[in-house]
Structures are given as C-alpha cells and as structure tokens.
Automatic annotation (TrEMBL):
UniProt cofactor(s): Mg(2+)
A single GO cellular-component term on record: cytosol
Subunit structure, interactors included: Homodimer.
EC number: 2.5.1.-
InterPro entries per record: UPP_synth-like, UPP_synth-like_CS, UPP_synth-like_sf
The organism's taxonomic lineage, starting at the top: Bacteria, Bacillati, Bacillota, Bacilli, Bacillales
CDD domains: Cis_IPPS
Protein name: Isoprenyl transferase
HAMAP family in the record: ISPT
Active-site positions on this chain: 38, 86
Family: Belongs to the UPP synthase family.
Length: 257
C-alpha cells in the first residue's frame, strides 16, 4: 500500500508543479530575473560536508532553475555566484570552483542547446584560469545563435567597478570628441557590461542575507527585490514560482495605480 501511495504522492508533486507553472504563465512573467546565489558554504557546513559539496549541489540548482525559467518564457536569467572572498578562499576550493564550469557545461551544454538557451557572461574573465576561460568561450560560441532564454553569468562582477569603468570610458570619449558633454540614462547604460540587456524586473537573493552586495546597482534601480532564507543548494522550482507570483501580485497593484 505504502509503495502505491509513495508513487501516487510522487506523481502528484510533479503534476502539481506543472499546474503551478501553467498558473504562473497566465499573468505577466518578469522579462529579466537576476539571482544572487548565496548559501553553498552554509549548506555544506550544516551537513558537515566540505564546502565544495555545496558548490557542486549549487551547480545542479543552476541547471534546474535555468530549465524552469526557460519554460516560463523568461527572456534573461542572470546568475551571480555571490562571494566576497572569492579569491581569498583556500586554493583547493578556488581550483574546484574553476573546474566546475567545465563540468557544468560538459554535462549540461547539450541540454542548454536543446533548450535553445544562449549562454552569455558579463565580467572580467581574464582572471579566470585558461581552461575555465576556454570552457566559457566555447559555451558562448556554441550557443550564440540560439534565440531562447539568455543565461547570463556574472563572473567577477562588481557594480561599482562597472560604473567607474563606464565613467572613465565616457571621459575618454568626451575628450576625443566622440560624444557630447551631456549624456542621458540610455547612453550611460550602453557603457555598462549589461549594455544590450534590459534591467532586471525581479532580483532574488537566497540564504537570508538582505543586501545587494554591489550587484547591478544601476540596473536594479527599479527591480522588485525578493529575499528568501532558503540556501541556494536547497532552492527549488517552487521557490522560484513563489518569487514570480509575488512579483505578479506587486506589479498588478502597480499597474492598477
Ligand atoms: C559559463 C559559466 C559556466 O562559466 C563560469 C565560469 C566560472 C565560474 C566561477 N565563478 C566565476 C568567478 C567568480 N564569480 O569570481 C563563479 O561565479 C563561482 C563562484 N562560486 N561558484 C560555485 C557556485 C556554484 C553554483 C552556484 C553558486 C556558486 C561559482 C560557480 C562555478 C561554476 C558554475 S557553473 C554554473 C554556475 C557556477 C558558479 C562560474 C561560471
């Protein structure tokens, strides 16, 4: 009896998810969702596992959430692996992290291509090891003609550095007479790493931290912010759907103003 209930229950969960997806797709879905993926280390610590186990688990969640946002017809999913002490971590952890992209792309690139996903990245990839750079460049190259969801990785991304870089480029262009001395918001945003992307409509951060941590400060000026205590490796489709439903409630009210 138990096995029947167990099976029945299982079937119920997946069809329940399918129902929720149909429900969410009935209203306006955010065009651009940005996620600060935080909590891998804490997730591992809670289970007395090495931190790299949290990163490995976190990578599988990136794949799951990419598939769901693609199903929801979201246009852009920007993922930022939040970590202040990225480079100050023990060498073994940094080495592992820098191998993850090859595993992620090696395992999931065929699936991403089948889903018509376009892999993009913003940030300084020069600092990445050669083998990591190669994997990223290959994924960007192999998916450049895809027209579905844009999966945008923020690599070594810092918003203030991005804004300063834009200002310095503008100063140079004004000196060289390429642009006038006054520019508008649209011209300014063309100098940012996100130049061609629309601003994020919904910004999600996991693991209970309620901070932007120098992430897309210019671009998130009008984003709906949604925070959850859930640690990134525990983040499920249901959590993303909950965030989108909350976004739909808020923007419906805004629309009604
Ligand atoms: C095209 C794409 C696959 O290329 C990439 C090239 C280099 C990186 C490494 N990296 C950039 C360096 C930096 N942020 O300083 C990170 O963001 C970083 C820092 N921790 N974790 C573990 C973690 C895993 C999952 C979720 C959060 C953190 C990651 C990390 C490593 C591998 C993968 S695979 C999908 C996401 C992801 C994130 C990332 C991507």
């Amino acid at each position: 009896m138990y096995s029947i209930w167990k099976r029945f229950g299982k079937k119920d969960a997946s069809s329940d998810l399918a129902l929720k997806i149909q429900q969410v797709k009935k209203s306006s879905v955010p065009k651009h969702i940005a996620i600060i993926m935080d909590g891998n280390g804490r997730w591992a610590k809670k289970r007395a596992l090495p931190r790299i186990a949290g990163h490995h688990e976190g990578m599988k969640v990136v794949r799951k959430i990419t598939k769901l946002t693609s199903q929801l017809n979201v246009s852009i999913l920007t993922v930022y692996a939040f970590s202040t002490e990225n480079w100050k971590r023990p060498k073994s952890e940094v080495d592992y992290i820098m191998k993850l992209p090859e595993e992620f792309l090696g395992t999931f690139l065929p699936e991403l291509i089948a889903e018509n996903v376009k892999v993009e990245m913003m940030g300084e990839i020069d600092l990445l090891p050669e083998h990591t750079k190669r994997a990223v460049k290959q994924a960007v190259e192999e998916t450049k003609d895809n027209t579905g969801l844009i999966l945008n990785f923020a690599l070594n991304y810092g918003s203030r550095a991005e804004i300063l870089m834009a200002v310095n480029k503008i100063i140079k262009d004004v000196k060289n007479g390429i642009i006038d001395e006054t520019i508008n918001e649209e011209q300014f945003s063309n100098y940012l790493m996100t130049r061609a992307l629309p601003d994020p409509d919904l910004l999600i951060r996991t693991s209970g931290e309620i901070r932007l941590s120098n992430f897309m400060l210019w671009q998130a000026a009008y984003s709906e912010l949604w925070f959850t205590d859930v640690l990134w490796p525990d983040f499920k489709e249901e959590h993303l759907l909950e965030a989108v439903e909350e976004y739909q409630k808020r923007t419906r009210r805004f629309g009604g103003v």
